[in-house]
Design goal:
The protein is mainly beta. The protein is built from 3 helices and 32 strands. The strands form 8 sheets. The protein has a 4-stranded antiparallel sheet with strand order 1-32-31-30, with no helix packed on it. β23 and β24 form a beta hairpin. It starts with a helix and ends with a helix.
Length: 418
Amino acid sequence: MILSLFFATAGNVFVSGKTPLWVYHTSGTINSISISDSGSYIAVGVGFTLNTGAVLLFDGGGNLLWEHQTSRIIGGVSISGNGSRIEANGYQILPGPAGVYANAEVYAFDSNGNMLWNRTAGFPWSATMSADGSRIAVVGSDSLTLLTWQGQVVWTYTAGGYPTGNNSAQQGPPTFFVSQNGSRVPVGANGITRLGSGENSILVNNGLYPIPESSVAVTPNGTLVAAGSSTSGTNGTVLLLTGQGDLLWKHHVDSAVLSEALLPNGSSVAYVTNWNVLFYDSGGTLLANNTYGESNLLRTTNGLFLVGGAGGSGLELFNSVGRLLWSDPLNSVLTEDVSSNGAFAAAASGLSGQGGYGHPSTLYFFSTTGEGSLLTGFESQLLNYSQSPIFILFEIGTVITIVALFAVLALMFVRGSR
């Protein structure tokens, strides 16, 4: 009984809230976080006013290495795996009741905070960098441009059939990801479009619903593409395709599909809906269904998934089959990221507001491996043992022993009362 109680209590310890390794407060709104592979560097994008923001770089110990003030609200940042290259993108909001988004710009920084170049972009816009830092993809209302790290154009794609998604600036451009070396750029909206960096090849999968809210995720080598498509808040489809756009499998879900993530080796894929996080293997078999919706989903290289955002449960770390390993009940999450090795997670909390500026926010940096716990290094082993047949049999045997003991005591009490 004591051992059983220990395991039950221990489980609560290593999946409940953790004390962050460090905290940083800012007077602006934190809109984006990007962590290097090992967690040694953390890039942060902040918005202060209608036309001011900053890019910040921290080391793993929470020391602010540099801060670059910008004439744009910084809405997104990406850091290369080794932390040597930082991409940032921002925008301005024009004065007036309409709050029009304008003057988008993309920046490239080295690890010392030197701005190497900047480039204007159209609306709606977004940008991201490949994991190795060699390519930056910039999407506009009617174009997609792939740049080298030096800012040179590799190719630009514009066409009347380009999947632009919702063209309102507040909704933003279609979702897209680049493979690790920037060789493939799947774009989500009105189907899946795959653009090859060398031959400018374009392939559209027409088997998806033409819904602007579609989104995609891609393995680092670009061989698998996960997609979500929704016709309403209660009707959606999760799909897995090859890098050439061929459908491998799909499943209907009773919800819109909000985000998805693929493990680098393609062994597991997860999708966030309005109500759940669904985990599948590469063959399309459902592995787990966890209640947690309206959130972002991130993957790591060592087979873990981080879920965080507006779902109300703060941050949660799952293994490849959908079992909860770690969580922190952080409220009002604005944005989050996880290191590639899954050892560190960062999140910002505060008021979201309109436009990504003007509200104070706080950056939290966590270890996901049980820092400060007596169980450090043994969480997964204990979890595995607590769910093993031997332990389950032990618990059953313990219950039977206790019931028998109470029966003997009751019998002795009855005889004694005579």
